[in-house]
Design goal:
A: 282 residues, D-Maltodextrin-Binding Protein, domain 2, 2 domains, 35% helix, globular, B: alpha+beta, 5-stranded antiparallel sheet
């Protein structure tokens, strides 16, 4: 075979190879592969929690305690990782999950919403509730009409803040609920709004001067564990464990963390947790 | 002859927008194979003629391949047409997204290509739910109840979910299909979502 013939043969081979490989390369998906959940949740795992919520996540006498703390600790024991809690304000929860490595999970009275699912994945629910209103006993509020034009303190970036938009009130956002309580007791706001079970936590833990408006229940809040977006394997991994937690530990955890709080309508059905989302496709 | 054929195929593809792509793909594959074969053959032949200085009439092999190419360009579109008319899956569309809520049926009418004369099959679809409120918690946890209404008669309800494929069997000799949609949402909330469908086909 002379040189020109070999060259022509080579060009044909090259062209054929390109024709065969180009279409398959064009269809290749991105290389964003989800890590194995057992690897992702190993060693020391940073869990984002709410700051100083009585009954949910409170640091007292050198010990973390509360419902969300107990859930994080139980997951660590079940899955074999060491927990390190990271304080987050309500408004920081999503950005902490989006920032690479800031936290791996968020367990912080995190209400599941369709909009939040656009940027993160959520596993749950592990608690269901509705929104309520807390006031001083000396200035009680009986119903919605008593709330008109009242100043109501809410955590910044919460579903509560958005839901108040439907009411004729003066919404006063603060970074933390503790700060809202300080303003309520100082007479700077008329009421504090959040999930009823969080407000009950403030009443149970040293809130003799506080009262929860019995006739005000707004919307539906279902708490989930926040995880980074597009993590279906991690979601399934945690979903199985959450189901076990609800069956085996939920009642005792509520009694320990929030004594006297009624579990009725708050315990989810462990067999009907939300399905895990599929990864978003381009 | 070839011009008439090309015009006819083009008109056919314009008249069948949902199938134009597959017909064009079939034709282009056949055309590419034939054209490549003839080009190679002509190039080799021209080189041989340049070396020998002789000009010869087309050989039997060239005649054979020319006839084969012509036959293929006639057979491929007609085969594609026969396949589409009687055997292939049919694309189904549903128009704009509709609002669906709890306790109220919303009806959508699947637009199945009537020109194909379909006679039943398996209607496959993937519902896509979109929230209409900033605070809703409806898309992932809700169950979309899909009730087929075949020639006015209610069929067996099918539970469907966001972004998961579902299917409904449509018996032979059904003329008209409607789907009733209703939402089952968790907890005490008023859920309204916009529902559209993707990847919907009638499998025959």
């Amino acid at each position: 075979m002379n040189y020109s013939r070999r060259a022509r043969w080579g060009r044909w081979m090259l062209a054929t190879a390109l024709v065969i490989t180009m279409p398959s390369l064009a269809g290749c998906p991105g290389a964003d592969v989800e890590p194995e959940p057992s690897e992702y949740l190993s060693g020391e795992v940073l869990i984002g929690i709410n700051t100083d919520l009585p009954g949910w996540s409170e640091y007292s006498n050198g010990v973390w305690q509360g419902f969300d703390i107990a859930l994080g600790r139980w997951l660590g024991e079940e899955l074999g990782f060491d927990v390190r809690y990271v304080n987050l304000t309500t408004n920081e929860r999503i950005s902490a999950l989006e920032a690479d490595g800031a936290v791996k999970l968020v367990i912080s009275n995190f209400s599941i919403t369709d909009n939040r699912r656009e940027t993160i994945d959520m596993v749950g629910p592990y608690f269901t509730d509705s929104q309520g209103i807390l006031t001083l006993k000396t200035k009680p509020i009986a119903g919605r009409k008593d709330l008109v034009d009242k100043s109501v303190c809410v955590p910044l970036g919460s579903t509560t803040e958005l839901r108040l938009g439907d009411m004729t009130v003066v919404a006063t956002p603060e970074n933390t609920l503790q700060r809202c309580m300080e303003r309520l007791r100082a007479g700077e706001v008329d009421a504090v709004s959040s999930d009823r079970v969080i407000l009950e936590g403030f009443v149970v833990h040293g809130g003799d001067d506080l009262t929860l408006a019995q006739n005000i229940r707004v919307g539906s809040e279902r708490y989930g564990i926040g995880i980074p977006n597009n993590r279906p394997k991690l979601c399934e991994y945690l979903r199985d464990k959450l189901s076990k937690f609800i069956d085996d530990k939920w009642d005792q955890t509520l009694r320990d963390a929030l004594p006297g709080v009624d579990p009725k309508d708050r315990k989810p059905n462990s067999a009907a947790l939300d399905p895990c989302e599929k990864p978003a496709t381009e | 002859m070839s011009t008439v054929l090309a015009v006819a195929v083009t008109v056919y593809m314009f008249a069948q927008p949902q199938r134009g792509a597959s017909v064009a793909a079939g034709l282009s594959l056949a055309g590419t194979l034939v054209a490549t074969g003839l080009t190679i053959r002509t190039a080799v032949r021209a080189q041989q003629e340049a070396v020998t200085g002789e000009s010869r009439p087309p050989s039997t092999a060239v005649k054979f391949w020319a006839v084969a190419g012509l036959a293929a360009s006639l057979l491929v579109p007609s085969s594609v047409w026969v396949w589409n008319r009687w055997f292939s899956d049919l694309d189904v569309t549903y128009g704009n997204a509709v609002d669906v809520r709890e306790g109220v049926w919303t009806v959508v009418v699947p637009d199945i290509d009537s020109a194909s004369g379909w006679k039943g099959g398996e209607l496959v679809f993937t519902p896509v739910l979109q929230p209409v409120s900033d605070l809703s918690d409806c898309v992932v946890p809700s169950i979309l109840r899909v009730e087929p209404r075949l020639d006015g008669r209610a069929g067996t309800e099918v539970p469907a979910r966001h972004d998961e494929q579902s299917s409904i069997n449509i018996p032979d000799r059904t003329d008209h299909v409607e789907l009733g949609l209703q939402l089952d949402a968790p907890a005490e909330q008023i859920c309204i979502v916009k529902v559209s469908f993707k990847d919907s086909q009638l499998r025959r």
